[in-house]
User: Fold this.
Amino acid sequence: MTEIAELRGSSDSRIVDNIVYFARTLRKAGLPAGPSTVVDAVRAVEVAGLKNRDDLYWTLHSVFVRKREHRVLFDEAFRIYWQSRGLVEKMLAILSPAAPPRGEPEKPKAGQTRVSQAFQAAQERHSEATKPQVEVDAKFTVSGKELLQAKDFAQMTAEEVQEAKAALRALTLPMDKIRQRRLAPSHKGRIDPRRTLRASMRAGGDIIDLKFRKPIEKRPPIVALCDISGSMSQYTRLLLHFMHGIMAERRDVHTFLFGTRLTNVTRQLRMKDPDEALMACSDGVEDWSGGTRIATALHEFNRVWSRRVLSGNPTVLLITDGLERDTDEDLEREMDRLNRSCRRLIWLNPLLRFDGFEAKAKGIRAMLPHVDEFRAAHSLDAIEDLVAALGADQKAAIATDPRIWLSGT
Assistant:
């Protein structure tokens, strides 16, 4: 802090103050921007001899951006902080009075929401401090968190959607493991004849030291097939944040999007920044918010991808409302093949949010006999129930048995 104060005395205080506030915005958005970095940024701006907007952008970029995932946040912070307030022109006027006028604003990119919230945090705290304090008795009220947990994704405001995204990324799957066919060396279990014979031969055949082995236990892979048609767009966008949080911890997770065609977005969701990952997913598909061809998409998955990603006895999450345009015979055949290829097939359907839901649509009735569990996927509570179910070794409970919906009871 003393170095920053010295810079204010030796340099134009307006330049130092703006860079300090800009660094605070970056720090609130998640970038490591400490006092020493601020000092380096101020000195870099003074030494660089800025002539236009790009000079200022890349000078600050060279100081604050240290990892690839920092680029998106820095770009949005620079656009919001400097361009929206016209501060670039003022700074260039100080350093270079002949600087050219400002150009057209850039198109918003990923990370805009988080940076905007970080930029407005100081103003919100100031406005809250000036408001009169009112005491509220909250004994008989429901907390905002509880309301958010049960609220439908389609009815959330922009702020609630951001909170829901953060909550979905924070969910962690239980460390459930299943027994594999392969065996591994162990201190107890079955006798391993090969290792025992080798150890005996190395000892000259006089001593028999028994070696053992037991089945390997590992977590089953997860494969998600997400519907991106118009009726499912809002739910799928939020559930992709859930899948992004899972893929940040586990490598054996694959995600596919389908509308009128099937698209593998596993590589895009590997990006560390969630906003950048979701934008890459949107750019990588051509049928977002279009029609739905579930049977066609499942046929392509079973024919092209099943042998690649369904090894290891995985759990498959099918996220769709089941409103199908293709023939029922094709859909039923592809669902049966998918169910036989995985350990558990869980269907997540937002239509279960309605109390009077009945499986009357032909597509839904064709799919239900071939799923192990039928669950809702419209709120945070529903996703938390799914996380708990993924850790269970047994099949679906009676509340999620698809036969209930087929019988209409």
Q: What stands out?
A: The first helix runs from residue 2 to 10.
